[in-house]
Amino acid sequence: xxxxxxxxxLYGGILTAAIAAPLVFPNYTFQFTVLWVMILLALTxxxxxxxxxxxxxxxxxxxxAGMYVCTIVQIGLYYDVAAYTSAYGAVKVEFTAEQYFTxxxxxxxxxxxxxxxxxxxxxxxxFGLRGPYFAIGTLGVALSxxxxxxxxxxxxxxxxxxxxxxxxxxxxxxxxxxxxxxLLAVATFFTLKKVYSGRFGLAINxxxxxxxxxxxxxxxxxxYKTIGWSISAFFLGISxxxxxxxxxxxxxxxxxxxxxxxxxxxxxxxLLGGKGTLWGPVVGATLFxxxxxxxxxxxxxxxxxALGTLIIVLVVFFQQGIVGWVQEKWPERFGISVDDRVVAVxxxxxRANPESHEAAQ
Amino acid sequence: MTELIEVHGVSxxxxxxxANNDISLVVPEGRITGLIGPNGSGKTTLFNSIVGYHPIDxxxxxxxxxxxxxxxxxxxxxxGLLRTFQQTRIYSKMNCVENMLISVPHRHETxxxxxxxxxPDVTEKAEHLLEFVGLYQKRHLISGDLSFGQQKLLEFxxxxxxxxxxxxxxxxxxxxxxxxxxxxxxxxxxxxxEMGITLFVIEHNMPVIMGLADxxxxxxxxxxxxxGLPDEIQNDERVINAYLGAH
Lengths: 361, 247
What we know:
The complex is a heterodimer of chains A (361) and B (247). Chain A has 15 helices and 2 strands. With 361 residues, chain A is mainly alpha-helical. Chain A has one domain: ABC transporter involved in vitamin B12 uptake, BtuC, CATH 1.10.3470. The termini of chain A are close together. Chain B has 247 residues and is an alpha/beta fold. At the A-B interface, α7, α8, α9 and α10 of A face α2, α3 and α4 of B.
């Protein structure tokens, strides 16, 4: 693998910023943590929405499902869940440090696995839908999940559940979740970078460009679609579990299945940064989070108007997003150029010729 | 000489329109078979029926002796029976090399190979095939930015990359400029002669199909009107009448 100077600077810069941010601005650790979660939401949305051309409005379902599964495991390991949720407020329940960390670890694993199972099951149903019908179908899944959770008393219903409290100082707590969320987002990024570079990436791009053609060429389209959604669900499930614990209290509509906030934000972030690109969601999430915090702070009351305006401008004038625009502007920097050589140079006996491996990168 | 595809008594209707009516024909292995007929005579419908694009109303279709009329498109494609489209279809936001790489045969794809990268030998094969159709220089360009004719050549190269046993081509020369057509005909012949790919070709350009095909079927009004060597078809009264709209 060739690592260029630019890549060293880029990854080094991000690493430095990631470590420095909570140390230099400790008051904003929570905001930085949310930023990592936003990056993760955008990255996982882009697997289907950008790379595969399936605009899902229901990805937030896995976030909420992961959150609830994680919570139930954390509590259920040591208490009766129904008694815990109904007694909320009346009894103060304590978790020891060991119980807390064991519960969190097992809860996150369960959240990841459950989300993958949900993705396979729902994928089996909704992947029969195409285009806008897929968007509406997935939206329906997320909305009904929120309503169902709200009606299910066992898991706290609309009243929600308080999570086990972190056994430590508040500052230590926020740093703990900052580290976990940043590591998870970075893991998501590199996992996607890896899978996009192989045949999985090409296959889902092919499905995006012309699914009928892909079927006609014998590609296992259903398999790729299901796996793509499962990868998203895996990371979304864990992030939901972490996010619930970071907030400390979860309820169905605002925290677990926030369809009209996080559910839409993940789409807008990808559009802003450039959907269908590896870096687009990262750039988009970062800028969007800044935009959102600024408008929510300085334009309170008008923040939704500002957000709506941003969405309209993006959809009408700037569909390719920032990274997409850069790619259009300087195509040759992305290897999109005419090769002057007329014939393929790579014959078996001249395999050692480094030129011939260019396209394999 | 063995029959690669055998179509027996195939019918297909859309609402009240009978597109294919009791069609029987064979595509012999290692040859180029032509399919001609006026617009609306059911040629593309027959192609769609063969590759499993829609269920047929009656009859049987076998590929290498295996009944395929109840299989789905992907299964048939993985057997090595592939088609190209009349309106060229490529993956328009990917570059030519990527278009080629994802067109490898998917016969032996398993869950463990889904995330693998392609080896240098696959890239090499892709580049040689792109060179074969004259797109080597443009291989890193986004395929949707190529001209229509070039996209058509790319689609042909993608089909070759899949190493099919049989390739159904729906009007391969439509929209290609006359000077390129000769080059394309030569490549079609080489695909059969050198790569052993049986071809079944729909074509409206009479000089092209007469020069290319070993034998030709002519459809009219959803039925097989005539079958024979190019010379026989060319002089067949019924074929001439069908094309001139005598009935």
